[in-house]
Design a protein that fits this description.
By secondary structure, this protein is mostly helical. Helix content is about 80%, strand content about 0%. It is a multi-pass membrane protein.
Length: about 190
């Protein structure tokens, strides 16, 4: 496989993940002005998860899902200021395409297999181990998606974007740090020798 094939495959998957996010946004009655943002966030989140999973952190689907959801949450805070819509309107439809449907399905099938199929004791223990592993993986991925979406909102303390501007927030933080540094410098100058 050459680079072009990999790039086109990734672009195709990101394209379809964008449309999945837009479809769920329509299902959740997201405002029309926010549909394109939801699609972009869904593509970015899924793309980050897929790229990290394929290159930097193979077989770390829980961590890559968390990082993809964090990116969605962070960008949703930014776009919420631009479109004057709560960030949660973008984030939920954007991360739905990262929900572990395959692992959830396999987990349910393993539970059914434990109940219905009679096997030897060593096979049953292996089946229980696989079921437990799939269940934990599904649960942790789902929790990481929720925590990843909400983490930027908790860090920036932005449950609503009403009356807030991200540029003003950054400017206030920078001037506050500069003021603290100036005060510390003046205190050092005024100290008796």
């Amino acid at each position: 496989m050459n680079f072009l094939d990999v790039f086109l495959g990734l672009a195709e998957r990101i394209f379809w993940s964008m449309w999945i996010s837009i479809g769920f946004a329509l299902l959740f009655n997201t405002p029309r002005r926010a549909l394109w943002i939801t699609g972009v966030l869904g593509g970015i989140g899924w793309g980050i998860k897929f790229i990290l999973l394929g290159t930097v952190m193979p077989e770390q689907i829980v961590i890559t899902s968390f990082l993809g959801a964090c990116a969605v949450g962070l960008l949703a805070v930014y776009f919420a200021h631009r479109v004057h819509t709560p960030p949660i309107v973008f984030t939920i439809p954007a991360v739905i395409n990262m929900i572990p449907g395959k692992y959830g399905y396999e987990f349910m099938m393993k539970i059914i297999q434990i109940v219905t199929v009679e096997t030897r004791q060593d096979e049953t223990l292996d089946l229980l181990y696989q079921t437990f592993k799939l269940g934990l993986q599904t649960g942790f991925i789902t929790m990481c998606l929720a925590f990843g979406v909400i983490t930027p909102m908790l860090l920036f303390n932005t449950y609503s974007v009403k009356g807030k501007d991200l540029n003003d927030f950054i400017k206030r933080r920078l001037t506050r740090k500069k003021t603290k540094a100036e005060l510390e410098g003046k205190v050092e100058e005024n100290e008796p020798v």
